[in-house]
Amino acid sequence: MNIIWSFLLVCLLSINVALAQNIGFKEVQINAGSNRPLTVTIWYPTAQTGPVSAIGENAAFYGVEAVRNATIDIQSAPVVLLSHGYRGNWTNLSWLAAALAHKGYVVAAPNHPGTTSRNHPPELAAKWWLRVKDISRVLDYLLTDKQWKNNINHDDVSAIGHSLGGWTVMQLTGAVFDRPTFKHQCALLPNPRICGLAGELGLKTAQDNEPVAGTLYDSRIKRVVSLDLGLARSFLPASLKTIHIPVLILAAGIDIGDLPQAKESGYLAEFIPLTLRRYKVYEQAIHFSFMQLCKPGAKALLEKAEPGDGIICHDGSTSRKALHQQMLQDILTFLH
Questions:
Q1: Burial class (CB in 10 A: 0-12, 13-18, 19+), 206
Q2: Res. 181: pLDDT tops 90
Q3: Regarding beta strands 38-46 and 106-110, do their DSSP bridges make them parallel or antiparallel, or are they unpaired?
Q4: Cys staple from 176: which of 126, 165, 223, 239, with CB 3.0 to 4.6 Å?
Q5: What's the mean pLDDT in 2-10?
Q6: Distance from chain centroid for Cα 284
Q7: Residue 226 pLDDT class (50, 70, 90 cuts)
Q8: Own/partner pairs for 6-13, CB < 8 Å, 24+ apart?
Q9: What is the mean pLDDT of the chain?
């Protein structure tokens, strides 16, 4: 019987993929008149074949081919919400957004004001909890907007985050930021890239209007994927122990001067219930291997623009494209 059900599942997934050969793309503004408007990109299956644009392409990074403002051609699509890293933006995970849309998902990726490229004033960056609320707001939009609510599965929602985005989506599971825990861990394992951000991100001292611990949990999120997160050691261990949804922890094996992944991703794996978490290390990946593909010469270009940024396009002995294929397969297996 197990063999029969496995065969049927493969057939159903194959049908879903066959119906979603093309990728649509829209950029929307949520709450444009509020004090925290969000720019959100949405990737989805479409039957339209063109015109195709290279979405997110620039001098340093390759874009992803998609049809702008195409019609959405799927019913009851599972939803994935993406959160970018510190001073990154939605383009960083565009490769993953497009790949998931190709498989039948509706994927939404906001820019987080205060910690986004070219938008990181200290007064916004310090409101660390608003990143988490951004993801919940995007989901509010998808579930209520007439253009999307009838095309998505309201009960099949996942969240994926890279770096600080991983820290962000983990809080949707009920993981609780705890300032005494963070200070204690920084005393034990001081690190300029992790603990050094405490002041800018509002983690050193209490901020005005901080939420009550545990109130950022969003019960609508059914599973979460962390991509080489940072700041894991700021979470209260007891809160990780009470997580009750599946968590996929993916980590980079090559250390670039941050805490080794075993001290960050491994910290999650240590406390999240074993039956709910999956933990994998890509030994030939660095922290930035989870980001979009770099063009030839990008390393020098980024280094010239901002000394130190050339590392974004550095990879281990395995190509970033090959790593993306492994990551995608691992993520799809988990989401299914």
A1: exposed
A2: yes
A3: antiparallel
A4: 239
A5: 46
A6: 20
A7: very high
A8: 9/336, 13/336
A9: 92
Q: Which of 25-39, 236-250, 271-285, 318-332 has the lowest mean pLDDT?
A: 25-39
pTM as predicted: 0.92
Assigned token pair, 140: 């509010």
The residue whose two tokens read 């970033």 is 320
- Name the one residue in this structure whose structure tokens are 């490229």: 117
Cα–Cα distances in Å, from 124 out to 128, 151, 202, 310, 318? 8, 34, 9, 26, 37
- Say if residue 111's pLDDT is above 50: yes
How far is Cα 265 from Cα 42, in angstroms, rounded to an integer? 28
What is the C-alpha separation between 293 and 288, in angstroms, rounded? 10
Residue 246's nearest CA partner among 172, 334, 331 is 334
Query: What pLDDT does 4 receive?
Result: 47
Please spell the DSSP secondary structure of 240-282, one letter per residue: HHT--S-EEEEEESS--SS--HHHHHHHHHHHS-TTTEEEEEE
DSSP 8-state secondary structure symbol assigned to residue 3: H
Q: Which residues contact 191 (CB under 8 A, 6 or more apart)?
A: 258, 259
Q: pLDDT at residue 216 above 70? A: yes
- Whether the per-residue pLDDT at 6 is higher than 80: the answer is no
Sheet architecture: strand order including 223-227 = 52-55, 64-68, 22-30, 38-46, 106-110, 77-83, 152-162, 223-227, 247-252, 277-282
Of the candidates 197, 175, 334, the one whose C-alpha atom is nearest the C-alpha of residue 243 is: 175
What is the arithmetic mean of pLDDT over 166-184? 97
Distance CA 25, CA 43 (A): 5
Residue predicted with more confidence, 121 or 176? 176
The Cα 19–Cα 34 span in angstroms is 38
